Amino acid sequence: MKAGKDSRGAKKRTGNAKTGRATGIGVRSAKGQKGMFYITTAIDYPNSKPHLGHAYEKTVADCIARWHRLKGEDVFFLTGTDEHGKKIQQAAEKAGKPPKEFVDWQVTGFKELCVKWGVSHDRFIRTTDQGHERMCQGLFQKALDSGDIYLGTYDGLYCVACEAFYLEKDLDHGLCPVHRKPVENVKEESYFFRMSKYQKRWLVFMEKNQGFIFPKSKRAEVVNRVREGLHDLSVSRTTFDWGIPLKSDPKHVIYVWFDALLNYLSGVDWPSAKSKKFWPADIHVIGVDILWFHSVIWPTMLFSLGIELPKKILVHGFIRSASGEKLSKTTGAIVDPLEVGDTYGVDSVRYYLLREIPLGEDGNFSEAALVERHNRELANDLGNLLNRTMSLAEKKLNGIVPKAKVDQELAKQLGLKKIVSHMDALEPHMALAEIFSFVSACNRYVNGKEVWKLEGKQAEAALYSLLDSLRVIAILLSPFMPDTAVRISGQLNVPLGSWKDLKFGLLRGGKRLGTKEILFVKKDVPAEAKAQVARDISVSIEPRLDALGLKLACAVVEGVSVKKKHEGLDRSIRETVKAADLSAVEASGVIQGYLELYDALGVPRQRHAVANLVEIARQSGKLPTINTVVDSYNLTSITRGFIVGAHDLDRVSGNVRVKIADGSEVYIPLGAQEAVPVKSGEYVFVDDKVVLCHLDVKQGEHTKVTNETRNVFLYVQGNARTPQRELDSAMEEICGNIVKFCGGKWKRVEVSVR
Ligand code: ME8
């Protein structure tokens, strides 16, 4: 069965709940009426094909929408496309098509994505829909009549890619800070929205509604920017015509963001019985790049129109390439969601994205990590559980569900309350972890009871417990992996249940099971990720540096699997920071030894990186979370004071030399695209092409460790005050931790002085 078909099917089944038959844990929506829930995604620009970021956003919203439907709520889920504005007009011109014909064609790709990814939206809105256009004209006129919109002249800067106005001070070296492209100088007659008038009201609103922006960490920046002052906003354009014309002055078209944001109202036919039922929206799901528009412009528009504000803006993180680059056509880092869905199965990709990336955090899309989760968690843990339960039921019970009771020892291992509270807290990754911990409990049950050896009543009791648990697992998985949920229920030969069926013992005895089928076929790790055998590398130190006491312990760890974070590692870090004597680290003289080395080289002393790290640990009780390699070595850095650096061995060219810089070296700092000079006189680690590390600045963009890294080259730096054996033992500790939290194996690398 195709995912799309299943998704609608799953929705219809849970739709039973809409008739009021669903019981279970009652949940009130924000509107106070039991069971109304309105969720939206951003509407996508169809100037090119959908990308993985679009698919991710729809997956997040879909999962939440399905979860609320499962709870028996009346859900309205809106997605769609943002079809006006100069960006679309330019793309249409490039394609040689009139804009409407262009968007009519482009939108098919976005609709196909929704079908293939099992997105269970109730409406796909297009801003070229007549109803939307009429409503926009009406609401614009209302603001004009009330005096909140006035005529003036816009004279300033505009980025077409963002469809946004900029002030000179916000540019980055004269370029748009988001797209790094030149901005346009615009001077034209324009209507303005009196956004400035609502500054105070907005700040009061934000004070009262602390949870308006999720995650909270994204709130402060917006609040600070509004505190600095709100400018009136240009809300019409006259220099192109692809937009909604003003009723009263048709040579103006409505600014594309003013038009687009109103989709959340026209999507429920504002004003209508439907909008009365669903507005205000419970959650707008968006990416961080459009937070300003949703958290400031949109609320002030609603203040002006006298319309209630949405309850929550959920800001998800950005998906980047496996090596952490921004997904972009210019850099060639693009992932086609339809293609990855076809290769790995949509449910596997949905699972990977929802399990791997905590909501609100950025995530790197790594095919190797996706395959690993697909093989280990889906094919091995879940797939095998179903497969062996079905096989044993066939063999021992002739494929008939026995009349028995669920073993309470197994049942009590399902953390339903935890799953619910994780979903309430918008932590789908944790909810999934909890569901899969029950899957593991079921696998342990099979092994512990040696079910394959049981006969008669004992076999019946154990297999009934497993079959019924799989029925419950299918229901719980339905918001995350709708197709899989239907396929599991199909094998059990029961309809996919709803909230009221989330109790044990509902599987009817005497019924025949369905046909056994493999849920997930194991996939091969992509060829690039297979290069796990580390190449050889040598390290040499310039004699002058050796004479000044600079020393090293170096190693390679091969075949690692790097992740953003690891719960065990986080725990170790918290415990280590708590127990560490951070003042002793500073007093130990190790950090002082580095500063003395800088003095000997005539390099200015700056605050030392390790001292900074110790300070962070002291103040916050934790360390920054970078990835499981960096976090593993930071653990040693803060307890022993050493500078440690790690690099992706497969991105290091040739061998590594530690030398005194002459100023001609190429260094690209983390996150940058351009090289910056390194001061002559500093000591630097260089390969055949670039600087890997200078002084205590231990990483560069070129060789940084990412989720895609398979082999790591690392070093512990020492100085005149640190005996070599201490460096060696620190290296052992670090490599031990990396192997513990990232897998692989490690070997020492010899260092020569020449
Ligand atoms: O901004 N990872 O449209 P859009 C995750 N039309 N999310 C991403 C992403 C990535 N790499 N790239 C983009 C627009 N997004 C406007 C919205 S709403 C009234 C108008 C997210 O096609 C982005 O943050 O550029 C946004 O939420 C959505 O995809 C559509 O982006």
TrEMBL record:
Q: Which Pfam families match?
A: Anticodon_3 (PF19303), B3_4 (PF03483), tRNA-synt_1g (PF09334)
Establish whether keyword Protein biosynthesis is in the entry.
yes
UniProt superkingdom = Archaea
Question: Which Enzyme Commission numbers does its entry carry?
Answer: 6.1.1.10
Does the entry feature the keyword Ligase, yes or no?
A: yes
Q: Which UniProt keywords apply?
A: Aminoacyl-tRNA synthetase, ATP-binding, Ligase, Nucleotide-binding, Protein biosynthesis
Q: What class of enzyme is it?
A: ligase
Region spans: Disordered:
1-23
Q: Name one GO biological process term.
A: methionyl-tRNA aminoacylation
Q: Which GO terms describe its molecular function?
A: ATP binding; methionine-tRNA ligase activity; phenylalanine-tRNA ligase activity; RNA binding
Boundaries of every B3/B4 tRNA-binding domain copy? 591-743
Sorted alphabetically, which PANTHER family does this protein's record hold? METHIONINE--TRNA LIGASE, MITOCHONDRIAL, METHIONYL-TRNA SYNTHETASE
Per the record, the similarity remark reads: Belongs to the class-I aminoacyl-tRNA synthetase family.
Task: Output the NCBIfam families linked to this UniProt entry.
Answer: metG, PRK12267.1
Designated name of the protein: methionine--tRNA ligase
Q: Which organism is it from?
A: Candidatus Iainarchaeum sp
